[in-house]
Amino acid sequence: MPCSSLAEVDGELERTKVQWLLAHPVAELGFEMPFSDSLGSDDVRQDSGNNPGNSHAATGAGSHWASSGSLPVFVRRTADRVPGDARVWPGDEILQVGAAEVTLGDGEFEELVTDENKSEFVKRLTEWRLFGAIEHQIEAMAVGLRRVVPESVLCELRSLLPPTELARLLSGLGEIDVDDWERHCAYAQGLQRDSAVVNWFWRTVRDWSTSPDEVVRLSQLLQFVTGSARVPVGGFSELVGFNGAKHPFTLSKGSYLLPQSLPMAHACICTLDLPPYEDFETCQAKLNQMLLLGRAHFDEAAGHADD
């Protein structure tokens, strides 16, 4: 569904920056806050700060260098964005984005957040995160959609479906029903619903679903196995494979895998191969490690129950 508040996009930013600013004097920050929003991750900014020479090499035209403490930061304007149909290589040098911020003020550079303008800053930050930052991407999606869907059909859809329902059709559902998931799961290569490793798998998934700290693993698992973190409209019975045909979420017996192996996913056919684990603790540890390493790097030796 389309997001209607900054909290839905970035709850931590909403709490620690927006709500805090509105409730406290700016002087309590202990530093000068630029009237801008970060375009890069903290890791990228830290790397740039440790090696500022690399940052100066890619300044490019139309950029401005600022400093936040000891970190060099490039300030960009929304006008610096390259349209999706523009060709810049070979040609103009691509501006560095990693250790950069986009100015949210009316002036070009150097504006700071004050008690007098912090309400306007919060407003512009919210508008940027919800709309401005993805404006070009949305425009590109609209162009692609109109290429494959006739305008007459789009007009009919607008009269039949509100934006929230259309978003569900395009993006799926964010809520994951574990009962529905298990009910529409298929089993292959000798695995049965009552197999020990299957019971351990669903026990682990249900443990995640009841823990506020681990419920996020449900969407991570779904994405790891199917390529999407969201459920199709209609639930797991409507899951599709790589060719667009319906294909159930499938647990398969990984006979070729060792008892110490991590599970193996085949996202194109929504299938997870489970190794022949010998106990619940090992199965649980391997599933957790699978998701952790699936987002970072792969190490076949990792994932032991005592790691």
Question: Can you offer a commentary on this structure?
Answer:
This protein is α/β, with parallel strands linked by helices. It folds into 3 domains: 132 residues, no CATH class; 34 residues, no CATH class; 117 residues, Hect, E3 ligase catalytic fold (2-Layer Sandwich), CATH 3.30.2410.10. It contains 12 helices and 8 strands. A hairpin with a 2-residue loop joins strand 2 and strand 3. Helix 10 packs across helix 12. About 12% of the residues have low confidence.
Quickly describe the structure.
The protein has 307 residues and is of the alpha/beta class. The chain has helices at residues 6-9, 11-23, 42-50, 52-56, 118-130, 135-148, 151-160, 163-171, 178-183, 196-209, 216-226, 280-294, and strands spanning 36-38, 64-68, 71-76, 100-103, 186-188, 250-253, 264-266, 271-274. The protein is globular and about 65 Å long.
Strand content: 5-15%
Distance between the termini: 38 Å
Strand order of the largest sheet: 1-4-3-2
Domain count: 3
